Amino acid sequence: MVELIIKGGWLMAPIILSSVLSLTIMIERFICFVRIRLNVTELLNEIFSYVKKNRIKEAIDLCVKNPSYLTNILKAGLFHYDQSKEIVKESMENASLYEVPRLEKNLNFLSTLAHITPLLGLLGTVVGLVKCFVVIEQKAISVGVVNPSDLAGGIWEALLTTAAGLCVAIPTFLAYNYFVHKVNMYILAAERASTELLEVLAERSYSNEI
User: Cα-atom radius of gyration of the chain, to the nearest Å?
Assistant: First the structure.
């Protein structure tokens, strides 16, 4: 393996660095998403139950005890429970401006790595082929005969960087799409919970008026 890396040329170094960065980001995002509970129906039902019973402090405490992007957004709205629907909605939207970027952290770098590593591999192949044909030209001038094995050997060494770039890019791109899907699911869950909280608060206000 070390010999193949050496034969691939100096452009193997940034490809290997890209693979390390990609793997680091994938592990960090995976750990982050594992800690997030997408199915929080029971928790949400408990929060909304407290709100319906006018026990807002208990609902906020429950959000504090179960910190996540979702409870942080709901907590922002609950702090303004006694104000208008527009203010509650705006508070949750402002909170989401801080929470959503945390979910998307480093995904732009992962996308960049998925796109740049095949280009690095292609560049390495082009550079390798240029060197290969320079050697062929020199042999043709000096010896007059070019051995086909020289051509084949130079080409397969040049193609090593393309293979390495694709080996990094393919899993990186798959991981990026998976994480983007997870983020979209989390955002959808937050939007549903926020809408439900607004409805519960509206029902509570209506009940108090009656």
Answer: 28
